[in-house]
PIH1 N-terminal domain-containing protein
Amino acid sequence: SMEEIQRSITLDPRPGFVVKTKILESREPFKYGVSTKVFINVCHDNQVPRPAIAFDPSIVFPLIIKNEWEIPLIVSNEKQDRDKKGQPSFVYDCCINEKSFQWCQTNVDLRSILIEWCIEAVEMMYELTLERESSIPKMLSKGELSKTQIKQSELTEGGLQKKLQQLKANETLGLIEELKDENSNEEDPGQLPDLMNINNNGQNKPLIEEI
């Protein structure tokens, strides 16, 4: 019904962990200086839907590779803050379902993929390119979490998630085309991390880093 389409929800997220990265490039260089720090608050609220298929590594990882399984997430409005040294930084909240959050806490590979998805969602919504070498500072959240208001309809398959998915697919296709044109041997940055190698990448790196 029309009424349902207009009904809105206010998220009241619980803190999870923080991803710290930085801006590599943007459409608005005066607003977003290169190397400006970005903090992404990965948080959770049960009002955000969970995936239709429950997480089971043997079932879900092959689906992720085929782009057929993802964790619905809601990105907050942009917030400005300062880092420890008083330098300006930008903060975004990425809110997922509590159950989805628990899956990511118990599976390191899924957590790495979630971080990639959060970075991609922020990049798409704010037209930024962010550094993939991120760190996880010792904090539950950077600043207050936003009580983001969204229309009920945006939570359903046809809403924001669908748009993000299409954008993601288009972006990945676009990147693949570009790379073909350049005959470059570099990896396509839009692809998911190699699930076979994902464990080796972070082995020497502490999961929690001081900022």
